[in-house]
Amino acid sequence: MESKHSILFWIIFALFAGAFLFGWFVYWEAKNQGLGALSGLVEKLPFSESLTGNISAIGFLADAVMDTDGEDRTYLILFQNNLELRPGGGFIGSFGILKVNDGKVIDFAIHDSGNFDGRIPDTIAPPYPMQETLGIKSWKLRDSNWEPDFQLNAKKAMEFYALGQGGEVFDGVVGITANVLSSFLRVTGPIEIPGYPGTYTAETAVIDLEYQVEKGYVDQGIEAGERKSVMGLLGDQVLSKVRDLPPQDLFALFQVILDDLNKKDIQLYFTDENLEDQVLSAGWAGAFDGAAPDDFVMAVDANLNSWKSDAVVKRSLRYEVDLSTEIPKAKATIHYEHTGKVRDFMTKDYQTFLRLYVPDGSWLKAVSGNASEPVFGQLKGKKYFGALVHVPLGASKDVSFEYDLPKDLDRNFYDLKIQKQAGVNDIPVSIIITKKDGTKMTQETVLNQDFILSKQ
């Protein structure tokens, strides 16, 4: 099914417009005055130190889109609904195909993933535990983001697209979570839709839309086939407000786009190695860091048959490590709080396949709070422990993994990296370290980006 007017179209249109509005300025400044002009530009604009460091990446991306030598560039856009969390960001209910030529959007169409998946042969067995929990017999595009690494997911999505006899060859892939809509509304302000009740705000828009297209349209006498027309109307309102933004708000829009990139709510993959190197360096590639030295932790959830329950599931991480013993020991506890009270069209008991990624050579000693026997695997030089977890409505649950770290872990200059999963933000993290000499240190943080605790 193809749509030219959905909210997702306007989100991606505004995304590219906002990002490349600034990119265009940077590109032509460099083109007309030389790359040296960028240093003066940086001094004049209110850039943070981290943003200044990404100017090179912005320039490369702007160049890729703004100067294509008259050739089309084609991108696959994956819309990931993180109300139904998956390892790469969220369930891929739809995807878009975007074509640009020398900075102009020449075509953009959105397709229903479920419809497209019907064209893909039932030849690829799904990864565990999709078949056991979802009852699917074959792996398809809508579930292609099964790894916490966007490069792998992007390549898998393109592979499934080709298996479905899609006719495009892609220059890159963009992954976008539903949080991006909220980001835009934080800049444009609340929006009302003529003929529809309520006000769509940054805090409630995603849930309100979910209700409107699943339940609200019935009470309003709207035909089922027209229930998603509200999305196009909302998109018109968002676009109208973006067009009217004053310059300072356009810069604010650019800043929230950068924030979404840093949070992995927007993830980028390019087939061009130079461009891919740039987004990897900027931290916008959604990359899993298999090369991270010393200690490493990443908790990754996959909502399996829990509907849109991630809207009301909160989680936190407590990580304890003891470097004073002969073999260093660790305990990672993921706390889930299911704030939903009643089963409804969005919410029921929560079921997730939890994977904890740790240094290779770690050895699991005990696990608690799990609903299935642990399984094990590898990704890019790291090991994972995995298990199904059930959290009933209104309940809380702690899932703990206790394990030995590699004996050769550097305990004199201890480093720890905690990676963040795309699609879930504001995760409270507590770190408790018993040092080699027996003294303790604690660290509290909120995980919105990858976190590094270095040389303790």
General description of the model:
The protein has 456 residues and is an alpha+beta fold. It folds into 2 domains: 281 residues, no CATH class; 159 residues, Immunoglobulin-like. It is built from 12 helices and 20 strands. The strands form 4 sheets. Strands 1-4-3-2-5-8 form a 6-stranded mixed beta sheet, with helices on both faces. Strands 14-15-12-9-17-20 form a 6-stranded mixed beta sheet, with no helix packed on it. Helix 1 runs parallel beside helix 10, helix 1 crosses helix 11 and helix 4 packs antiparallel against helix 12. It is globular and about 65 Å long. The relative contact order is 0.12. The N terminus is likely disordered.
Question: Topology, please?
Answer:
Blueprint: E1 2-3, H1 7-33, H2 37-44, H3 49-52, H4 55-66, E2 73-81, E3 91-101, E4 104-112, H5 113-117, H6 130-134, H7 150-163, E5 172-177, H8 179-188, E6 191-192, E7 199-200, H9 205-219, H10 229-243, H11 247-262, E8 266-270, H12 273-282, E9 295-300, E10 313-322, E11 329-338, E12 350-359, E13 363-368, E14 375-379, E15 382-391, E16 396-404, E17 416-418, E18 427-434, E19 440-447, E20 451-453
Parallel strand pairs: 2-5, 9-17, 10-18
Antiparallel strand pairs: 1-4, 2-3, 3-4, 5-8, 6-7, 9-12, 10-11, 11-16, 12-15, 13-16, 14-15, 17-20, 18-19
Helix pairs in contact: 1-4, 1-10, 1-11, 4-12, 8-11
